[in-house]
């Protein structure tokens, strides 16, 4: 059983490359900040906490969809590892 | 931001952090709305009229009686008018309104609640009561209430969606001071006799049973 779980965990790592990691971090921070400010202002103008909640919830879901899945364009700049050289002069 | 779970955690953490900022904004803005354009702490008025007390003697422990000694219980009926709609803004869940009376009791000032109400929406914020009965019967812990001067006040308490409770008092107009009439001595003894008779009857019944 634990072997199967380990397999699933290995499959679910789904990494992205280094520049994309930095970019997605800044992206989610900015979207959530703008969303929070927009939700506050929208709720205040309509005098409804419900609107604030909906607005911020939508922002959160959008951020998740943009940042969490490992889209192909987050994996274009993969690190090129040095290829192992065959030892010749032993 | 390397793996799927890390990305999910970072996004949710950031969202929770910013939601605290939103909450702070909601609380601060609702407080400002209570102060401007009009300060509800000073400008909420109420009018009370026709406060008439009615006194009964109770011998139940649930009505303050001790050792079978009858206790003076006071109820009032009153007319009340007040508008609580300025207290409603986007952070108001409901308003608790309560009518209290202050009186001097052996050196200290007591505050007792006669009536209260919960206002759940702005449509119901206009309180207009005619000949309303007090919800609670009131007795003094030490002595009787007869001869005491009751000073009625109408308080409000905003229960918000987020943030701390906000308390305030309305500027009450009308005849809000009332002296409970002292009971005449002979009627008091008469009442006591009645009470003792009733007690005897009860004990007889219990014996029969």
From TrEMBL, chain A:
<feature type="transmembrane region" description="Helical">
    <location>
        <begin position="56"/>
        <end position="74"/>
    </location>
</feature>
<comment type="similarity">
    <text>Belongs to the SPCS1 family.</text>
</comment>
<dbReference type="GO" id="GO:0005787">
    <property type="term" value="C:signal peptidase complex"/>
</dbReference>
<keyword id="KW-0256">Endoplasmic reticulum</keyword>
<dbReference type="InterPro" id="IPR009542">
    <property type="entry name" value="Spc1/SPCS1"/>
</dbReference>
<keyword id="KW-0472">Membrane</keyword>
<dbReference type="Pfam" id="PF06645">
    <property type="entry name" value="SPC12"/>
</dbReference>
<keyword id="KW-1133">Transmembrane helix</keyword>
<dbReference type="GO" id="GO:0006465">
    <property type="term" value="P:signal peptide processing"/>
</dbReference>
<comment type="function">
    <text>Component of the signal peptidase complex (SPC) which catalyzes the cleavage of N-terminal signal sequences from nascent proteins as they are translocated into the lumen of the endoplasmic reticulum. Dispensable for SPC enzymatic activity.</text>
</comment>
<dbReference type="GO" id="GO:0045047">
    <property type="term" value="P:protein targeting to ER"/>
</dbReference>
<protein>
    <recommendedName>
        <fullName>Signal peptidase complex subunit 1</fullName>
    </recommendedName>
</protein>
<keyword id="KW-0812">Transmembrane</keyword>
<feature type="transmembrane region" description="Helical">
    <location>
        <begin position="31"/>
        <end position="50"/>
    </location>
</feature>
Automatic annotation (TrEMBL), chain B:
<dbReference type="GO" id="GO:0006465">
    <property type="term" value="P:signal peptide processing"/>
</dbReference>
<keyword id="KW-0812">Transmembrane</keyword>
<feature type="compositionally biased region" description="Basic and acidic residues">
    <location>
        <begin position="180"/>
        <end position="195"/>
    </location>
</feature>
<dbReference type="InterPro" id="IPR007653">
    <property type="entry name" value="SPC3"/>
</dbReference>
<feature type="region of interest" description="Disordered">
    <location>
        <begin position="180"/>
        <end position="209"/>
    </location>
</feature>
<dbReference type="GO" id="GO:0045047">
    <property type="term" value="P:protein targeting to ER"/>
</dbReference>
<comment type="similarity">
    <text>Belongs to the SPCS3 family.</text>
</comment>
<dbReference type="GO" id="GO:0005787">
    <property type="term" value="C:signal peptidase complex"/>
</dbReference>
<protein>
    <recommendedName>
        <fullName>Signal peptidase subunit 3</fullName>
    </recommendedName>
</protein>
<feature type="transmembrane region" description="Helical">
    <location>
        <begin position="15"/>
        <end position="36"/>
    </location>
</feature>
<keyword id="KW-0256">Endoplasmic reticulum</keyword>
<comment type="function">
    <text>Essential component of the signal peptidase complex (SPC) which catalyzes the cleavage of N-terminal signal sequences from nascent proteins as they are translocated into the lumen of the endoplasmic reticulum. Essential for the SPC catalytic activity, possibly by stabilizing and positioning the active center of the complex close to the lumenal surface. Essential for viability.</text>
</comment>
<dbReference type="Pfam" id="PF04573">
    <property type="entry name" value="SPC22"/>
</dbReference>
<feature type="compositionally biased region" description="Basic residues">
    <location>
        <begin position="196"/>
        <end position="209"/>
    </location>
</feature>
<keyword id="KW-0472">Membrane</keyword>
<keyword id="KW-1133">Transmembrane helix</keyword>
<keyword id="KW-0735">Signal-anchor</keyword>
């Amino acid at each position: 059983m634990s072997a199967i779980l380990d397999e699933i965990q290995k499959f679910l790592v789904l990494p992205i490359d280094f520049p994309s990691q930095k970019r997605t971090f800044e992206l989610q921070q900015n979207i959530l900040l703008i969303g929070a400010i927009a939700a506050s202002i929208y709720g205040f103008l309509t005098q409804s906490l419900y609107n604030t909640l909906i607005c911020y919830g939508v922002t959160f879901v959008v951020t998740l969809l943009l940042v969490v899945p490992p889209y192909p364009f987050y994996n274009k700049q993969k690190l090129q590892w040095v290829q192992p050289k065959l030892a010749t002069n032993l | 931001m390397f793996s799927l779970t890390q990305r999910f955690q970072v996004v949710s953490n950031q969202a929770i952090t910013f939601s605290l900022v939103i909450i702070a904004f909601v609380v601060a803005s609702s407080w400002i709305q209570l102060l401007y354009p009009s300060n509800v702490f000073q400008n909420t008025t109420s009018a009370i009229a026709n406060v008439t007390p009615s006194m009964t003697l109770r011998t139940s422990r649930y009505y303050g009686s001790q050792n079978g000694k009858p206790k003076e219980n006071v109820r009032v009926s009153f007319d009340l008018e007040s508008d609580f709609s300025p207290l409603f803004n986007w952070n108001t869940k409901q308003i608790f309104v309560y009518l209290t009376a202050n009186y001097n009791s052996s050196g200290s000032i007591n505050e007792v609640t006669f009536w209260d109400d919960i206002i759940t929406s702005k449509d119901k914020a206009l309180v207009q009561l005619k000949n309303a009965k007090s919800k609670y019967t009131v007795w003094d812990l030490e002595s009787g209430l007869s001869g005491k001067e009751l000073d009625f006040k109408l308080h409000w308490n905003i229960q918000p969606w987020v943030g701390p409770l906000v308390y305030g008092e309305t500027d009450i107009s009308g005849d809000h001071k009332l002296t409970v009439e002292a009971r005449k001595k002979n009627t008091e003894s008469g009442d006591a006799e009645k009470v003792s008779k009733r007690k005897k009857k009860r004990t007889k019944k219990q014996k029969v049973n």
